[in-house]
From TrEMBL:
GO terms for cellular component: HAUS complex. This is HAUS augmin-like complex subunit 4. It comes from the Eukaryota. One of its GO terms (biological process) is centrosome cycle. InterPro entries: HAUS4, HAUS4_met. GO terms for molecular function: microtubule minus-end binding. Keywords: Coiled coil. Residues 301-328 form a coiled coil. It comes from Crenichthys baileyi. Pfam families: HAUS4 (PF14735).
Length: 369
């Protein structure tokens, strides 16, 4: 049953790329790309089902409702505090302006009494507030300088002066606030500063609406800026991902091209070095011929060539004779050690015969003389 509901929710959101776009729009703070959703369809379905239960910030619907209520209560408390704080600061500003004005010009006695009474009431009220125990704790706070709120309250001005101050306060406060609003209007629109009082008062009635529009416009621009920031981050991630793919492809192309070019280059280098080696050999032969021509005459070279040919013929004959002797010797070695004694005896007899022939030859030559 739950699977059917999740499937229905997914179908409501969309299919394929449309589903991915809506999931990304529902979770702008989630660092997920469309490629991640495509590679992980189950995770994409999970996010699609979560869009029915959570908002863009990741809060559940009940928690978001409670958070909105708490935010409304907080805003109400803030407005109350700001109202009282603005009133208090406005009264303090009035007192400060009166002190400055009193030092520069002559102030009427009734106006001076009004501001002194108001300042005294503010100070006493502030002291009483500090002396009161906190309403957020059940423990009693220690007294400051041993004073109680009742003792400080006795320092209030006379009731008559307080009544006069209260009667004149709304008019003076209204005048002060109006001057501040006109100053704000002049700051917001400097070209309206030279307008008449009635026209500025009329425009002042529309100042809150203008400021509210500016505030909404600013919030809209902030939201657009945040959306553009998220979009820029996603596009940056996509750009880097595509850039990495392009770099890898470029590296592959460079490697393949380099290997192909390297093979052709090696083959050309081999042909070049072979030709160069052949040229060096020819040059060496040429140098040898030139050395021979410088050293020997043509007749000497011809004679040396004939001598060389004759020596090579004799060397070839000697090698053939040596080979024949080695064959005979190998055939004699087959007979074993018994033939070795006969060979030695034969050799000794040959030497004796040669010696006797030589002696006979010498003797014959001596007789002829």
């Amino acid at each position: 049953m739950s699977v059917g509901l999740e499937t229905a929710n997914i179908l409501v959101l969309g299919k394929g790329d449309n589903l991915h776009q809506q999931v990304l729009a529902s979770f702008p703070l989630c660092d997920v790309t469309e490629e991640d959703l495509t590679q992980n369809p189950l995770f994409s379905k999970l996010l699609a089902s979560l869009t029915q239960h959570v908002d863009k910030t990741g809060l559940t619907v009940p928690l978001k409702t409670e958070l909105d209520k708490a935010e409304q209560r907080l805003q109400s408390q803030k407005r109350q505090w700001l109202r009282s704080e603005s009133l208090h600061r406005g009264l303090q500003e009035m007192i400060q302006e009166h002190c400055v004005r009193k030092h520069n010009t002559e102030v009427p006695p009734d106006q001076n009494m009004f501001y002194e009474t108001m300042e005294r009431c503010l100070r006493v009220t502030q002291c009483v507030r500090h002396l009161d125990p906190s309403s957020t704790t059940s423990q009693d706070q220690p007294l400051i300088l041993g004073l109680t709120p009742q003792q400080v309250t006795q320092l209030m001005p006379s009731e008559k002066n307080v009544q006069r101050m209260r009667q004149a306060l709304p008019r003076q406060l209204e005048k002060h606030l109006k001057d501040k609003c006109l100053s704000l209007l002049s700051y917001y629109q400097p070209e309206w500063e030279n307008e008449s009082e009635a026209l500025k008062t009329n425009k002042l009635s529309h100042l809150s609406t203008l400021l509210d529009k500016e505030k909404k416009r600013t919030e809209l621009l902030k939201e657009i800026c945040r959306e553009n920031t998220v979009l820029l981050q996603r596009q940056t991630q996509l750009y880097f991902s595509e850039l990495i793919k392009c770099i890898q492809l470029l590296q592959t192309l460079i490697l393949d091209h380099k290997l192909k070019i390297q093979t052709d280059l090696d083959r050309k280098k081999l042909v070049y070095f072979e030709g160069k080696c052949e040229l060096v050999l020819q040059k060496i032969k040429t140098e040898m011929v030139e050395v021979q021509l410088d050293t020997y005459s043509p007749d000497t070279v011809s004679a040396h060539r004939k001598i060389r040919e004759k020596l090579e013929c004799e060397l070839k004959a000697c090698k053939a004779e040596k080979q024949a002797v080695e064959l005979k010797l190998s055939s004699f070695e087959i007979l074993g050690k018994a033939f070795e004694a006969l060979a030695e005896e034969y050799s000794r007899l040959r030497q004796e015969i040669d010696m006797k022939n030589w002696a006979l030859k010498e003797l014959t030559q001596y007789d002829e003389k």
